[in-house]
Specification:
There is one protein chain. Among the domains are: about 110 residues, Immunoglobulins (Immunoglobulin-like, Sandwich); about 130 residues, no CATH class. The protein is built from seven helices and 22 strands. The protein is about 20% helix and about 25% strand.
Length: about 500
């Protein structure tokens, strides 16, 4: 076995044991020689509070140090339920353990070491931790006293830190509140989170804000689908597309897998850039915007502010928040006018039909992104639109929520053929009855097709770069289906989808 050094720099003898770890030691508690009492006899009691925390390249171990222990501590480890293996010498208070085996559980136990004054003490209760070699930037979340995040309403206090891990991004360290987020996604074992920093800060090259989201993508193990959809949206140059960054999350020392760190969809100069409304904006031009709205069939389930249109479209008002009666009345009336024009006899008239009520370019671009990805949630939920102050029409976007897209619906493969988004809800099917609208859409498709194709072809290199982290994630969450060809599958599916849509348009 190679040499192991303690905190005093001493060299332990080579004992011929298997090379299973490299250990470095650090003194956690130092007693002043001038004030220390005479050494006490070891009590033999098992140490308390043994804790293991995942760090980059090693596992950090701490425990409660007793002043009665004079000879240090023995530490043992075992890998994946194998035999216990001991350190070649006693440790003082903390240990740093560097595993040789990746993506398996490591267990540890500690006891007071034998001395001339007494035998070794009892072993502590073992502690286990799943070890992975972290390869992406690391988001480390440490809640106060290790408190769990129990629901999607209650913020838990803690620290939020980013270790670039060689990525080239700037690091970050600050305090925050964290809670769960999502609807169905919150019910999965791998949890998504909403983070509110105490102070606005830029994160990993994204403009400064307080509100951030960690998307778990539990049912989307490639970790490419939401990323690809955001790239497709960005190519259309819609007013706002969230920026996403792949990270690995360590939560209270526990590896939680690959996440997408991104911006929370909200009104702001670097996010959804529309007028911010207050309770006093109730008349004249002030009441005309800005509104951030979401089509969400969970309107009644979640008891959110909003309404259903005469055609049954569920509209959740995300901003202003809180909303006053005059604002609700205005936006409800404006959408009613849009629907009346859309389903009226003269709906295709460019002046008196539905066109003055909607920003046509955003309507088409948003639809094409939803359709080319075959997003299961298109026009059902997570479909945003805005109404800015002084503007006549609604704008569609930003896009959101693509874990059920690009050939996958919760591990069920979907066909790259067949219309989808245009069949969801009443608005798009009716608009497609307008030949002029269809012609405008086909023209826009011809502009975007080569860009979409280029994005598709770039997915394999991106996926290959992510593969070690994706394998970490798959090992942590024990997916029933773990496909090593996911990048190729997503690319080929998207290329086939583009080809099929092109045939339909022409």
């Amino acid at each position: 076995m190679g040499p192991v050094r303690d905190a005093r720099g001493g060299r332990a003898p080579t004992l011929g044991r298997p090379t299973w770890a490299t250990v470095s030691l650090a003194v956690l508690v130092l007693l002043s020689a001038a004030c220390a009492p005479a050494p006490a006899e070891p009590t033999g009691a098992a140490p308390n509070g043994l804790n293991a925390s995942l760090d980059i390249g090693h596992i950090s171990l701490t425990w409660e140090v007793s002043p009665d222990v004079t000879g240090g501590y023995d530490l043992e480890a075992r890998v994946a339920g194998g035999p216990w293996l001991d350190m070649p010498h006693a440790v003082t208070a903390t240990a740093s353990y560097s595993p040789h085996t990746n993506r398996v559980d490591h267990s540890f136990r500690v006891r007071s070491a034998a001395t001339a004054n007494g035998p070794a003490g009892a072993w502590s209760q073992p502690v286990s931790i799943f070890y992975v070699d972290l390869v992406l930037p690391v988001v480390r979340i440490d809640t106060t006293e290790g408190a769990p995040v129990a629901d999607t309403e209650t913020y838990v206090r803690g620290g939020f830190r980013i270790d670039p891990n060689g990525s080239g991004y700037d690091g970050y360290s600050g305090t925050m509140g964290i809670r769960g987020r999502g609807n169905t996604t919150w019910e999965y074992p791998k949890k998504p989170y909403r983070v509110k920093l105490d102070a606005a800060s830029p994160i990993m090259g994204i403009a400064a804000e307080r509100d951030w989201v960690l998307l778990a993508n539990y049912i989307e193990e490639s970790q490419l689908r939401t990323y690809a959809a955001m790239e497709l949206s960005r190519a259309t140059e819609m007013a706002y597309t969230p920026t996403v960054r792949h990270v690995e999350v360590v939560f209270n020392g526990r590896y939680d897998g690959v996440y997408l760190l991104t911006q929370h969809t909200e009104v702001g100069s670097d996010r959804v850039d529309i007028a911010r409304m207050g309770p006093g904006d109730t008349a004249d031009e002030a009441v005309t915007g800005g509104y951030l709205l979401e089509i969400d069939q969970r309107l009644e389930w979640n008891d959110e502010p909003g309404f259903r249109t005469s055609r049954g479209v569920p509209i959740v008002v995300k901003d202003p928040e809180p909303m006053v009666d005059q604002q609700l009345s205005y936006i409800r009336g404006r959408i009613s006018e849009f629907e009346t024009a859309l389903f009226g006899a003269g709906f295709a008239d460019p002046l008196t039909g539905f066109r003055p009520y909607v920003h046509m370019e955003s309507f088409i671009d948003h639809y094409l992104v939803q359709e080319v990805t075959r997003n299961e949630d298109a026009f059902w939920s997570s479909t945003y639109l805005t109404k800015d102050r002084g503007e006549d029409g609604f704008r569609f976007g930003p896009v959101w929520d693509f874990d059920r897209s690009l050939g996958s619906n919760h591990n069920i493969e979907t066909s790259p053929q067949g219309w989808w988004a245009r069949t969801r809800g009443p608005w798009m099917p009716r608009a497609l009855e307008d030949p002029t609208f269809v012609g405008q859409m086909v023209q826009r498709w011809d502009e975007l097709k080569p860009v979409f194709t280029s994005i598709a072809n770039g997915l394999v290199p991106t996926g290959d770069a992510l593969r070690p982290a994706v394998d970490n994630d798959a090992a942590r969450w024990r997916y029933l289906l773990h496909r090593t060809d996911q990048p190729t599958f997503v690319r080929d599916w998207l290329l086939a989808r583009i080809a099929w849509m092109d045939d339909q348009f022409h």
